[in-house]
Amino acid sequence: MRLRLPRKASSSYSRRDAVDCLMHLTMRPIVQAALRSLQGLAHARAVAQSRRVAWSSRAQDRSTRLKERPGRELAWENHAVILQLAMTAQDLSELKIKRAIYLRMLLDTAPKRLQDWVDEDELEDMPKSRLFEWVAYDLECMELEQIEATLTPREEARYAREAAEFKGFE
Questions:
Q1: 38 exposed, middle or buried (CB, 10 Å; 0-12, 13-18, 19+)?
Q2: pLDDT confidence of 10, banded at 50, 70, 90?
Q3: Is the distance from CB of 159 to CB of 101 less than 8 angstroms?
């Protein structure tokens, strides 16, 4: 099955559009809600981490501490955990596979998101949006590695099959 995704006028993309496109695959509502919660959690983590990186790169010798805002992260994490507790083993397996496919889609967009950024760029001069994309990319890579490391052989086979069937953005 090949998904036909709507084309956008610009070369940008929306994470919400990507999640919604992935939702068109047949899955139970609890899995859909959990996927949205995991993406909300990932976004909150990327925002918090990019703030920490921006603060530390600009703070230098300041003794002032960064004021943490853990509420958003914690709320998304709690929501995701509650949903996962209510899921069957089959739902949890599907959640892992769909999340991994979604993360692969995001990683495929890295060249557009990061454009000409290189590791040698100075953080102090980096626009906030670029810094966010850089941090989000790193977190997406780590999350995908964690998911793939926990896949059972049966889940690996299903993941490979569904990832091959899903062609992403067209």
A1: buried
A2: very low
A3: yes
